[in-house]
Amino acid sequence: MSKNNKKPILLLLLLLLIAFLIAFGWNLIKSDDDSTSYDENGVQIESTETSMGDDSNDGHNHEEHAHDAHADKDKSFSPAVDGDVYKLPDSDLIGARGIGNPNAPVTIHEFFSLTCNHCADFHNKVYPELKRKYIDTGKVYFIFEEFPLNGPALYASMTARCLPEERYEGFIDMLFKTQDKWAFSGNFKEALKKNAMLAGMSEEGFNECFNNDDVRKAMAERLQDASQNYGIKSTPSFVINHGEKRMIGGQPIEAFDAVIKDLMMPKASISPVKYANEPVEETEVEAESEEPAETKE
């Protein structure tokens, strides 16, 4: 075969190779775009800049986002970090769910997902001690903030919100204690309905709540607000005094002891400026100080 006859064949092979590479690259790009998540009822989970969009539809991947390595190493913990103070706006549809004295010197917002293993661990092991030492003694006002990372957590949070306010904490406590029985079951909706009926909700009320778009949108807006203004991207996360301090990940009681003690310490008083010709009062003034209330052991 002459050299002139080989050139068209080589050119054809080159064109085929280029076409193959283009098609292969397009498939890779397309596969990266097809990452929409759905819950077990086929409901699309809207992706946000938080870790919600990264979770699978069965709720098992949430712990990857919630994990805080500092909390698992020899019972050490990550110290609270300072942040900008910001107060989440009140919602007429989903009001605050808090426990304790609203006028307490320390306010803790806990952002949690009801399918998060580390959140369940905190509520089952650490929260009772935190409540005994600080909430029941009037030192801390504790506010529950739902931050659902997947479909089951979202609908469980909606169900809790549809219950009377006085039943909210008990229902949340039950869901965390029985998390492995309802959150990861083959039909989480049916398991969730049984729990809701145990809490006094009718089947009709449950179905109405489950399909309440207004509650779903209100929760999505609050989640987005917390994500943007507090930087919440994983659960559990704790915002103390509206952002003055923040803690990320599951924390032992010692972490809360440290940050609450720091915030309750009397602030150093600043002496007024005295000018050269200003008369000095003879009266001795003691700096005001506030002693923390004794903890009931």
Characteristics of this structure?
6-stranded mixed beta sheet, Glutaredoxin, globular, 297 residues, two-stranded antiparallel ribbon, disordered C terminus, 10 helices
State the CATH architecture: 3-Layer(aba) Sandwich
- Largest sheet descriptor: 6 strands, mixed
What is the count of DSSP helices, taking H or I runs of 4+ residues? 10
Q: Could you give the order of the helices and strands? A: HEEHEEEHEHHHHHHEEH
CATH class: Alpha Beta
Number of DSSP E strands: 8
**CATH level-four homologous superfamily name:** Glutaredoxin
Rg on CA atoms, Å: 27 Å
Q: What percent of residues adopt helix (DSSP H or I)?
A: 40-55%
Helix/strand/pairing category: alpha+beta
The parts where pLDDT drops under 50 for at least 5 residues are: 24-75, 269-297
Fill in the CATH topology.
Answer: Glutaredoxin
Mean pLDDT: 75
Strand order of the largest sheet: 3-8-7-5-6-4
* C-alpha termini separation: 98 Å
Number of domains: 1
| Approximate strand percentage | 5-15%
